[in-house]
Amino acid sequence: MLDHLIASAASFSGDVDGLFVLITVLVGVWFIAAEAMFFWLIFRFRAKDGEKAQYVTGKEKHLKKWINIPHALVLVCDVVIIVAAIRVWVTIKQTLPPADRTVRVVAQQWAWTFADPGPDQKLDTPDDIRTTDELHVEVGKTYHFLLESKDVVHSFFVPAFRLKQDADPGRIYTGWFKPTKTGSYDILCAEICGIGHGVMGALLVVDTPEAFQAWEQAHAAETPAEAASATESTPAPAAGQ
Amino acid sequence: MAQHSHEAAHVAGASHDAHHHQNWFQKYCWSTDHKMIGMQYMFTGMAMALLGAFMAYVFRMQLAFPGHAVPGFGLVSPGQYNMLITNHGSIMIFWVAMPVLIAGFGNFLIPLMIGADDMVFPRLNRLSYQLFLLSALVLIASLFVQNGGFGGAWTAYPPLSADKHYNLTPWGSSLWLIAVVLEFVAFLLGGINFIVTSMNSRAPGMKAFDVPIVVWTIVIASILFLASVGPLVAGAIMLLFDQLLGTSFFNPTRGGDPVLWQHLFWFFGHPEVYVVMLPAMGIVAEVMTVFARKKLFAYKTVIYTIIATGVLSFFVWAHHQFVAGIDPRMANVFTVTTLLISIPVAEMCFVYIATLYGGSIRLTTPMLWALAFIAEFLIGGVTGIYLGSSGLDVFFHDTYFVVAHFHYTFFPIAIIAVMSGVTFWFPKMFGRQLNEFWGKVHFWGTIIPFNGIFIPLFILGAAGEHRRIFDYSNFEHMSKPWMIDMRIAATVSLVVMLAFQIPFLINFVWSMFKGPKVGKNPWNANTLEWTADSPPPHGNWAVMPEVHRGPYEYSVPGRERDFWPQDEKV
Ligand code: HEM
Ligand SMILES: [Cu+2]
Ligand SMILES: [Cu+2]
Prior knowledge:
The structure holds 2 protein chains of 2 kinds. By secondary structure, chain A is of the alpha+beta class.
């Protein structure tokens, strides 16, 4: 269902969408039943001349079951949803499948900077490829990201991946994703972070293996110093205070 | 406990005598009468609601027509946008929902419904309102200082909120925080009064289970508030120190922890939702029983349910922090507690629906609002399940799905239930009747556009539209034509809804002075407030009432009249 509204492009985004459908079905049935009952009662028991209301206390067994049975059923639905929700959660946040490649994601007021490990596959070496506002990844590979913030709380949000993780200053969080569809997708900041919050976006480009290699080769040639200075020139928010 | 304290009544009576020849100032600004204080809270809250609604109008116009000047405001800058959403949220929760629902209705109703002549501590009560008014003035002042009001969202996460180098509002952020602290102190004073009064000053004969539900809900909400607010006040003062004195409780570069604030905030913030929800549920119960002429279905079960909800509400706060970097295993615990709280809340909804069974339903304006509360609140309730499910919240957190969800809970609470209560007790407050026709125009003119605002927001949220963004044209996947249309639809609905508040305001003011006069009990209701004059004088009753039965004895078999007031002898 969600897929109609927004592309789904990572290994676990289908799980999230499935959870959405499951919950919609389970709560949808209850919602429709409750509202139908509700409007029917209003219609059925409208005041009529000379007709008094019934004296019902709620202690009558044959009436109480109308509350108690739905209740037990709600509990059952709750349990189903809890199990499903935790399973998806465990996949996304609690397990870390072995990485093919690890990238660094740095949030700061109001830009994203990324570090790709470069040809040697190791971060924090001179051949790292550092970019601003654009992260290139290869389709079908499992990525780890190391997420940090330089100043306030930001949040790394890739809607097409169904992925979100806050970035807190002073901490580094590790998460993962596995892109499944090529294309370019928005990266957003989902936690208010000052006046530039509304423009704090970046692009996540999922390349074919060939395109990724071409990109890597083109950028590996750049000197790290150049890339570093690109980081400094953070775009200012579109309009001032 | 059920004993009425004659001594207290005597002393209170004496102080009322001293107030007999009041001038305008004494009557309206310096009153210790619980009814006057209650109405002051309500009026202040409603005035603030207009301010909060104006802010919503400005930022919704910006979202629908980015880059165009908003009529009545002008061009919206990103900084102003953040200021508007922050203060809209803060105002609606702290300066509308809380003052009207707890302080307003609590003050007006508790003594009248339990048969007391006033609160136990009337002067404390007055101080509570004055502090509240001061807090509102400080908040308004914060909007006009250099660099404008605070823009770090009503949740005020540090380090953004703690450091002027990050938030760029050195004055606005501190004044905002001071206003919040003052406001909490005001409600602490009020809450103590509610709890003590309803425990000690009940009319002779009134047992715990003869107390109307709305009094129960307000008292339980006050207890929740007292139990949850401590950590937040402490946190707010720490944050103030960080802002002004250079401490670093929440600053990681000097050993602080920004996530600590989030725990303190939400440990308060989640119970807070129930603090405003419970009184709303209570109001709706009162109105529904009167206009269905029915006993509340399973009254005692409702009370136990309310208590269970209150207790559980302390164990769910971290569902606001699933993606905040807390230990992922903790999320599982909070998913379980969050989904379990749906049980008592569902129970309440079922009980209310069941109350209609066998009724003799009259669709007066207050009843329409009460029924709409149930119908709309259900949407808020079921959409909460989506967000409590950690695996889905990974996607939905901080999107417009959340915004739509909590407005489907808060709008029914703070607007729909309040309207139900205001139209229901209006005759008691002013001794006159509101106009039914214009009341119904207002009702439909509010309910239909309300859904028109927030249903589109659910869909936009499910499409990944994240919140607190002043201009979506900066993002490609959020500039699709259908999304732009939905934003416009939501905004147009808002403008229509605001326009329909005008008949209400006119009806309200006109009826206050010119509406048809009513007697003591225009709705044929059972509870004690309807045995006092309309409006009740200082001290409420010349002869204090005695209680003989529970509050919901409607349509009792074998009796000619279909109501049976609590104080009637046989
Ligand atoms: C008049 C009708 C209302 C409209 C059209 C409206 C609209 C909105 C919108 C669109 C936002 C999201 C802004 C954003 O995240 O970018 C928002 C935020 C909020 N609203 Fe409302 N709202 C209304 C009434 C209320 C009421 C009655 C309450 C509560 C009693 C309320 C409480 C909040 C809160 C707490 C926030 C969050 C503020 C923040 O992000 O810091 N609103 N409102
Ligand atoms: Cu950010
Ligand atoms: Cu941000």
